[in-house]
Amino acid sequence: MRRSLFSLIRVALIDLRGGLQSFWILIACIAIGVATVAMVGAVGASLQSALARDGRLLLGGDIEFRLTHRAAEPAERVLFSGLGKVSEVVDFIGRAQSEGVGVLAMVRAVDNAYPHSGTVETEGEGTLEQQLAWQDGIRGVLVDPRLIDRLGTSVGARIRLGNAEFQIRGILHGVPDQVSQGVAIGFPLLMSTEGLAETNILQPGSLARYRYKIDLTDGGSAADAARLVEQSFGQAGWRISLPGDATEELSRYFALLRNFLTVVGLSALLVGGVGVAQAVSAYVTERQRSIATMKALGATRSRVILHFLTQILVLTLVGIVLGVVVGTAFTLLVLPLLGPMVGIPLTPTIDGPSILSSTAFGLLTGFLFGYLPLSRAEAMRPAQLFRSTESAAGGPGSVNLLLQPRTLLPMLGAVAGLFVVAVADTGRIEVVFWYAVGAAMALLMLRVAAHLLQGALRLLPAAPNAVIRNAIKAIYRPGSAAPAVILSLGLSIALLLLIALVESNLRHQLDPEVRVDAPDFLYMDLFADEVAAFKALAAVDDRIADFTPVPLVRASSFTINGEVPPELQEPPKDLTLYFGDEQPLTYSTDLPYGSRVMSGKWWSADYSGPPLVSVTEDLRALLDLKLDDQITFLIFGQPISARIASFRAYEWQRGGINFPYVLSPGALDEYPISYFGLITARDGTVGELQAALIAAYPELVFVPIEEAIDAVRDLMDTVASAISTVGGVALASGVLVIAGALAAGRRQREADSTVAKVLGATRLDLIASLTIEYGLVGGLAATLAVPLGVTGAWAFISLVLESTFVLDPLLLFLVVPLALLLTVGMGAALTWGALSGRPASFLRNG
Amino acid sequence: MRDARVWSLPVQPETDFTLSSPILEARNVNLLFDSGRSTLTVLRDVSFALQPSEIASVVGPSGSGKTSLLMVLSGLERATSGSVLVDNAEIGTLSEDRLAIVRRTHFGILFQNFHLIPSMTALENVAFTLEIAHPSWSYSDIRRAAMDALAEVGLSARASHLPSALSGGEQQRVGLARAIVGDPRILLADEPTGNLDQTTGATVIELMFSLARRRGTAIVLITHDLGLAARADRTLSMNHGCLREVHTDHRVSV
Ligand SMILES: Nc1ncnc2c1ncn2[C@@H]1O[C@H](COP(=O)(O)OP(=O)(O)OP(=O)(O)O)[C@@H](O)[C@H]1O
Ligand SMILES: [Mg+2]
Predict the structure, then answer these.
(1) CB of A761 within 8 A of CB of A474?
(2) Whether residue A400 sits in one domain with residue A279
(3) Do B133 and A300 touch (CB under 8 A)?
């Protein structure tokens, strides 16, 4: 028994030897597939583990209590101190000024206990405490290098924030808990809590985050601490974050990235699979004479199959080892680059599970796609195999053969295995399932289309030109590579398109420009008297085209019909920038500009009954709301209930700010209301007006919209770059598969071309014929790939990401002709090489 | 005399083995190819029987169906109708795997165009037969047997060469060594001397004939060489798929 196994392996290896160079396509395809899967998996895992492992670091403590508008009161501070070491951190948006120039800054004021873990990365002399401390008659700040740039100053210079002056003592590169800070507007600036007090910027009700990060005393449980604070001060609206939650705050951007990784990972599996299939069936075709010989010598079916499976296994293993090495090396290179892009240090680690799943993927695909062509070739009569020059393996194969248990069962097993690997790799069973369904349908469609093309060309009257005639015949003659090329080309182009479209959609989503097209300046925290002052100013200053105050109250949480909605989500994206996890509320007598009532009724102008609320359609769908539902908001610790009177749709294209919840007038009267002040400048006066406003109201912080967008765009760009990097890898592997598909049919082509050359065809004739052939085949594949790719991208964007799909027509005009050009170009290059040699050498070896 | 103990009979062990019982027999075999529009009849009602250690030559014009006959006799092609019996057992009804085993135990085949495995050396090509038939043999035994077979066809010196490095005649002899290395009961040889010069051809033929004498191997010898055909025990001629016995006088004189 053992002897016969050895014999089997020995012979299989002998048969393999001497031809290794001709298996490079197979090995390369497997290596590419495995490398891509390993890489995508490792990047995803690294992100995940960084978020999980560094949760405490990213949060900046064992637990964080957070409040907007006010600092902790003495009683609260006492309770916090009882839990462990407390660090108080205040985040707000301020304006750093220097010689008349003002730049928006994301200010963070910290005490001496900060940070509990990790280090603040700075450039400059002394400890953090010393850098921020009072020294030589002035306090210090650390600032982002871009802020220095914008202000046009240097380290050592003085800047003003509110009522106080500070000296720039050094450069701030990053804080360990940056990620949990959320999306920042403006450039980071670090100061001390004492310094903050001197600025006088923060008043009760101002938009600032007061964070209490606690390093729990040994043995203290974060859950217990959370419960204690909730029981004692639950009404005050404290937000509590545990290390895991630090990552949830970023969920949106990382969810995007992770979703994208899912689709790239699956595409890598599919593209890799197509490459492997291509290579294995080309290999089996090449060996079909040997299969016949073995049978003539008396080898049984299982012997033949085992012989070739052993070979495929060996080649696959070589490819897997190569792929794992390349994938791991690439991951190690990419992670340190990707880390800064997404704002989390990604340590270059070797990810075991990814390697394992990519190995399993390689083995299963190799088996799956090797087994079917092998069974097909094996099922043919030896005499047929001997005589036929065409591919027995690539032929249609009878349904009968496929339905035989011994063919079907191993393949079903492999498919199930692949499914498990894909689910394990991406962790999203429904996405994998639908992706698989889509891929299967795409495969079927491409197969059928190839068949139809061949049939149609056969029916065509013979072309008068020999070159064209030969090109057309090459497509439909038996054993033609056209169906295989259409299949792999169509799938690859569809995937290229899918990835490119998903990427462009994500970029589109991340591009704040499409959302905010509102006024030029936004004052975040105006009180009633200031609103009055602005109104007066607007009346006399003709540089101000419009001033609109929007009343605003922030609710820290809310319930629907007394229950916390399980899907409780971030508010619409354009507002998260300003509010984070707070719910901004406004009231209005009139239906806001740009809104439309979809159901229910808008209240009458003189309504004065119990509070009503109008909610956006988005939220209705998201939270499954109905008219007359009761929403209870928690405002400054006080609950206020309102009945849903209407649902609104909002067209962001028309400008303005969309509030998810608009209450009826009077509902918020008892609460300290602040205002958003929206100022629109007359054309051409923006810069002038800005300087005038700073001079008139130095203590008020406003956001020049352009500048804010810039800051946000910077961040979006990094996320988008990360997405592009990963997408680029997938694209590259798609291109390689196309190359593989072309190279797989190369031997046959070489043989044909050589014979044609011997018979007197010129190289030009052959290349012309080939260009026509590949043009036709590639054209069909590309034409089919467009609807496939677009459908896939649409399904992913609108069904998985639940977002609006935007089709970028430029991409279609770019990707498709490029893919076509690439196909014909590579095909021509491959054949040209073959044609350049003397025919004799090929004929002798053939 | 033949040593009958060497032969096992896996197909029908209970068969009574006598001299009068043919080792290979075709009964009313027809072979048709359906090529879409027309049907091509390649073998027409072919019947013949071959006794153990008998040598039959088959002659006939190109395209008359000689190779097809060889394919059908060895089960590489299934007859459209009629039956083929190996050792009195019908093989038309056997599964592919049973057919493979019948070939392994009964046949040695030398193909017209050799069909050596291109990635294997001459020695490995010959050894391959034994690897399939006797997976439990040690590799050194297999090697030795393969070397002996190569020596018999005069190719010991080229044992480690790949087929692409061998001349047509050399490849043909490797094919013959591969066909005889397993001591088959039936040797089917398609143009075994087609690529050989006279002297080498004669050596090869001598080898085959002595095999028939020493081990009782029955041989079907397809050839264009009428002189060679005449040296067989009997000659058959193939014409448009019809197989006829040829009765000549000069056979007596050999
Ligand atoms: N699979 C097939 N399909 C159609 N026709 C076939 C097939 N196999 C063989 N033929 C035809 O059967 C006929 C006999 O072929 P075969 O190879 O047996 O001839 P042959 O007598 O061996 O010729 P040669 O002396 O040239 O080798 C030929 O006309 C051939 O074209
Ligand atoms: Mg022939």
Answers:
(1) no
(2) yes
(3) no
